[in-house]
Specification:
Elements: E1 39-42, E2 49-51, E3 61-63, E4 66-67, H1 91-95, E5 96-99, H2 103-112, E6 121-123, H3 134-137, H4 139-150, E7 154-158, H5 167-175, E8 179-184, H6 190-196, H7 203-215, E9 220-227, H8 236-246, E10 251-255, H9 263-273, H10 278-288, H11 307-323
């Protein structure tokens, strides 16, 4: 498939070869019906928690039940990691999903270990833990059950309505101040969502999820991510207002970064969907990245640098003030953490 091809329900039809591969598979250009099915592979990882050492990220450990993501967000920075699995950052990322079926058991083992210091675990640091296949595998739910047994705090971020399925467990965690949830909302435009984030919940549904979680007594915030200058930055005031109206106790944002393996995919997505805006958007990304599409400098990568980044910061601050949003304390409690005896199966 060339860069101009489209597949319904997919952010990209491209499948560029991994930087670690010498060979590349190219489908027949005449195959108009080329539409790969999603394949699931067993991930036999021996550990389940990924450690973070970056001081600008507010957690030390993350848990990713899946590698690869059916949501297919074209801008997703996690696409690059699929290349380390000998897959492509393109269509493979959306259609070849690694499933960590033993995640709940590995998590229980980790929390039971003598050297585990109770602290917040993020679900997930890379791919969405509530992507469509979770409805079948239920790995995220089983991991939440383990966390609830141990009363270990967890922070969850998702674009999927499936999180409401687990309100019962989230409420139990909330009793001990052990959970914070967040909905990632990129735009208010469902047509843009359809091409930018093809298999995610549409914007209106995400606000409904925020409301459902808030009404259930589960702390929920909204993450405007990514902010793509020249595309969705003008929507910040309305997203902030709608989030607060829905019951969010906090709103934050992060700026688009385009690491290796994602840059070309995003550029080609712009060419297919927004050719007249392509130059403007990429120039803005270069500007806030100080000449780079992927400024990975700590404490700058989330908000960017330069005049456009400062404009976004000012707009976001003013939007929060206008919406009456005050700063919230997102620290979770570890004082209720308990070791669960081997063989103990009672959840609550």
């Amino acid at each position: 498939m060339n860069k101009d091809s489209k597949i319904k329900g997919r952010a990209t039809a491209e499948n560029p070869k991994s930087r670690f591969h010498k060979l590349e598979f190219v489908p027949d250009e005449t195959d108009e019906d080329f539409s790969p099915k999603t394949t699931f592979y067993n991930d036999s990882s021996k550990t389940i928690l990924s450690e973070n050492t970056s001081p600008d990220i507010p957690f030390n450990f993350s848990l990713n039940p899946y590698r690869g993501c059916e949501h297919g967000c074209i801008y997703c920075y996690a696409r690059q990691y699929h290349e380390f699995l000998d897959f492509s950052a393109g269509l493979d990322f959306e259609t070849k999903i690694m499933v960590k079926k033993n995640a709940p058991e590995l998590l229980r083992k980790k929390l039971s270990s003598k050297n585990w210091k109770p602290q917040t675990i993020s679900m997930s640091g890379a791919t969405d833990c509530y992507q469509p296949c979770e409805k079948h595998f239920k790995i995220t739910r089983k991991c939440l059950e383990v966390l609830a047994e141990f009363r270990n705090p967890v922070g969850i971020i998702t674009k999927n309505k499936l999180i409401t399925r687990d309100i019962d467990i989230l409420q139990e965690l909330a009793k001990f101040d052990c959970v914070r949830t967040a909905l990632s909302i990129t735009t208010l435009d469902p047509k843009l969502t359809e091409t930018l984030e093809p298999r995610t919940a549409r914007p209106e549904l995400r606000f409904k999820v925020v409301s459902q979680l808030a009404k259930a007594g589960i702390p929920v915030s909204v993450m405007i991510a990514p902010v793509i200058l020249g595309l969705n930055d003008h929507e910040i005031p309305q997203i902030v207002k709608r989030s607060v109206d829905a019951g969010a106790i906090g709103v934050n944002y992060s700026i688009l970064q385009l690491p290796y393996g994602v840059k070309e995919l995003f550029e080609n997505w712009l060419e297919r969907n927004l050719p007249l805006q392509k130059s403007k958007i990429l120039n803005r990304v270069y500007s806030i990245g100080e000449g780079s599409l992927n400024n990975s400098e700590i404490f700058r990568r989330m908000s960017g640098e330069g005049v456009f980044a400062k404009q976004v910061q000012a707009l976001f601050k003013a939007s929060k003030i206008k919406a009456g949003l005050r700063e919230s304390d997102f620290r979770l409690s570890t004082k209720h953490f308990r070791k669960v005896e081997k063989g103990q199966m009672t959840l609550f």
